[in-house]
Amino acid sequence: MEHTAGVRRQHFSLRRLGLVAGALAFAFSVPAHAQDEQMTPIEIPAQPTAIELGTGPLPGGDIPESWHSQYGSVFARNVVVATLTPFLPDPAQANGTAVVVAPGGGFRTLSMENEGWDVAKALAAKGVAAFVLKYRLNQTPAEMAAFEQSMTQMFSTAAARPPRPSPAEMMANLEPQITDSRAAFAMIRARAAEWNVNPDRIGMVGFSAGAMLTLATALAGEDAKPAFIGNIYGPLATVEVPADAPPLFVGLAADDPLFANSGFGLIEAWKAAGKPVEFHLYEQGGHGFGMYPKTTTSTGWFDAFAAWMTMHGWITAPAT
């Protein structure tokens, strides 16, 4: 009975997240100034340190993984096998904290460089062990032209209010990604000694769709339980905050076309529940600024995130 109640609570929370699931279908992680830059197919980059998570191939994932460049960065799509790539700090500087990094891309593509590798490198420079999660994605057309056309079609209907999915549908829609996220936490904890990680100091930060996955992991991942979470230009719909909710960091631009005009229910819910929350609303930045160098103050989100982690003691080795 207790387990059933827990599942119901998870479904309720994820139902609220479902209000923005349709929006995330077109929530590309792009700099506002570069909406029209061409997608160029590229060879899949060598990823010698990527580790398969063992969650199996995506059910029905017949279209193989492919990559493209855009906005001066690289993206993966049609990911059918999830991987985790460690970016470990110098052992002499390691502070025991780890962060799972979840790039965004509307669950159709992943901004592997701007919202993955570059974030992980910056964290490792702070003594934090970072792990880029390449989670499984919804399938898209194999041919680049057809893929671009499908995305143009979604952008053209972006203003339409998405239908509200049922709790069961919401869980089913995110099931592969949540499974991958849980597996990432399990792997890091299993190899914590090897990677100089404290199993109780593993957080998660996500961008756009990756922020939604981060929040879903915190709400539904009984075996994951991030020590802290970062939501960078993700949805801010209200949720039912669990009793063991982790500290939350939120970064969003006021001119974000996707999530800046629907209220701040998530922050209000976290605060009302008496849970630690820090919210940075930047005047400009658009959607998908990530680690791109820009003239807007949104570029300072990472320094603010690191300062927040330092305030909580996650970037300072704990006293022995």
Automatic annotation (TrEMBL):
Keywords: Hydrolase, Signal. The keyword Chloroplast does not apply. One of its GO terms (molecular function) is hydrolase activity. The keyword Hydrolase applies. Residues 116-290 form the Dienelactone hydrolase domain. Pfam families: DLH. It comes from the Bacteria. InterPro entries: AB_hydrolase_fold, Dienelactn_hydro, GDXG_lipolytic_enzyme. SUPFAM superfamilies: alpha/beta-Hydrolases (SSF53474). Residues 1-34 form the signal peptide. This is Esterase.
